[in-house]
Every structure is written in structure tokens, then in C-alpha cells.
Design a protein that fits this description.
259 residues, 9 helices, 3-stranded mixed β-sheet, alpha+beta, Alpha-Beta Plaits, globular, two-stranded antiparallel sheet, single chain
Length: 259
């Protein structure tokens, strides 16, 4: 069985803000495009044009809608207030690059391994025998089996991009982060408490899914903020704009639009 490093120099990972993710799938498409020509290529699509197409996607986006609790609406909301609207959450799912990655320790050939330098979990396809033990061990469903090649594949955090010195430094980020139109995804060292991603996790009480299982995922999700009820939105819309406190440019814009 494959051994995990006792410690890693960094804990590179993603922070995903569920409050501003709009479920556009740009991250999934950009991931597919980059990795289809990267170290994990090819990402084979099987029956791509059939009624039920499927294939290899390192990043998948799931959308959920939660109904407001009837008990909360009945007991805590004012009688004349509108019930809160259902909350739609878009949940991008990919490898979490766990510190105690079970997908690594069950691998009989050493194909799955965790890098000591940065904590990224990868697959050496030359050693993979396609036994699927890693996919059964992963509770997040983050492994992708290629029936065409007979090997397992997964998110690499675009390791062939983040260390690519031919790219401008600002572009040395995973393709999913670069493509996100709302900046709902951030990349950095989650082992450094002073990094931007670590600070955002602390400020927003970021969480890791299924943390109780003990795999210690590196990636974090920032939870959605509470939504305003109908009465809150109406009261806010009735607030009077103090034009004197606006910057000069905005005061001019306000005067033009108010004509």
C-alpha cells in the first residue's frame, strides 16, 4: 500500500465561495479544456452524442434548492412579512486533496500518491492498473475512471500550469480559478495562516465537506450568507439615498439619471 508523507511543505488547494457561485459551469469547461491537453490527457468522452452522454470531468457542478422551513416561517417571522425565498446553492465538486487521503493508502501499486512538497494528490497512470480501489475509498466521488484507457484520473490542481514558468505569474493558477466569472474560486496555500485563502476561510467560517470522516480535506467551501426576507428587502428599498455622502462622480451620475 502507498504511504502518505508525514508532513507537506505546503497545502495547496481551493477555496470556493458558495455565496457567489452562479453554477455557470465555466470552471468545469475550463478544467476539461486545459486537462484534455495536459499531463492527464486525454479526457475521453464516451457516447458523447447519445441520449445519455458521459465522460471524464475532473470538476462537476451540482445545483440544489432548499425550501424555507415552515416552522421557522410560522414562528419567527412577523405576520405581515413575506416568506423567505428558496435558497439555490451551486456546489462545485472535485478532488479535495485530503491530508489523510484514503485513495492513496489503498492503492496497491503506488499509482496514487500525495506530493510532499505541496500536498497535491496525483495519479501516475503508468503504474495504475485500473482496480478502482481509490474510487471506492474516496467519499467525495472525485475519481474518474477511463474505461478507454483502463486507468483512473482526477483533478491535478493544474500542476502543469501552476508551476509553468513560461506563463505570466498571474496566470499560474488552476484553469477553473482563471475562468470563474464571479471570482467564486481562489487558489493558494491553506497551510499558511497568513495567506489570502486562509484568511478568507477564517473570516467566513469555511468548512470542508464530510469533515467528520477524518480525511482532513484541504479544500474549503465558504457557506452562503443568509438571504433577506421580502420585508427586509422592502424596508431597504425605502431607505432615502443621502446624495451628499456620495463621491463627486456618483453625485453627477445621480443628477443625470434623476432628470
Amino acid at each position: 500500500m502507498t504511504m502518505l508523507p508525514k508532513a507537506t511543505g505546503k497545502k495547496l488547494g481551493l477555496v470556493i465561495d458558495l455565496d457567489i457561485c452562479v453554477g455557470c459551469h465555466a470552471c468545469a469547461v475550463a478544467c476539461k479544456e486545459w486537462n484534455a491537453g495536459g499531463i492527464s490527457a486525454p479526457l475521453t468522452d464516451e457516447s458523447a452524442y447519445d441520449a445519455e452522454p458521459f465522460g471524464i470531468w475532473f470538476n462537476r457542478v451540482h445545483s440544489y434548492e432548499s425550501e424555507p422551513s415552515p416552522h421557522v416561517c410560522a414562528t419567527s417571522a412577523p405576520k405581515d412579512s413575506k416568506p423567505p425565498a428558496p435558497l439555490t446553492v451551486h456546489f462545485p465538486r472535485s478532488c479535495l486533496h485530503c491530508e489523510d487521503a484514503a485513495c492513496v493508502t489503498v492503492c496497491p501499486t503506488g499509482a496514487s500518491y500525495k506530493r510532499e512538497a505541496d500536498g497535491i494528490v496525483l495519479v501516475d497512470e503508468d503504474k495504475c492498473i485500473g482496480c478502482k480501489l481509490c474510487s471506492w475509498a474516496c467519499p467525495y466521488g472525485a475519481r474518474e475512471y477511463s474505461a478507454v484507457e483502463g486507468v483512473m484520473k482526477k483533478c491535478t490542481l493544474c500542476v502543469d500550469r501552476i508551476y509553468n514558468e513560461t506563463l505570466p505569474e498571474a496566470e499560474r493558477q488552476p484553469a477553473c480559478v482563471m475562468a470563474c466569472p464571479t471570482r467564486a474560486r481562489a487558489f493558494g496555500d491553506l497551510g499558511d495562516p497568513d495567506s489570502t485563502v486562509s484568511k478568507s476561510v477564517v473570516e467566513r467560517d469555511g468548512v470542508a465537506p464530510l469533515e467528520q470522516l477524518g480525511y482532513r480535506p484541504t479544500n474549503r467551501y465558504l457557506p452562503p450568507r443568509p438571504r433577506r426576507t421580502g420585508s427586509d428587502a422592502e424596508s431597504q428599498s425605502e431607505e432615502t439615498l443621502n446624495r451628499d455622502r456620495l463621491p463627486p462622480l456618483l453625485r453627477w451620475v445621480d443628477r443625470v439619471l434623476s432628470r
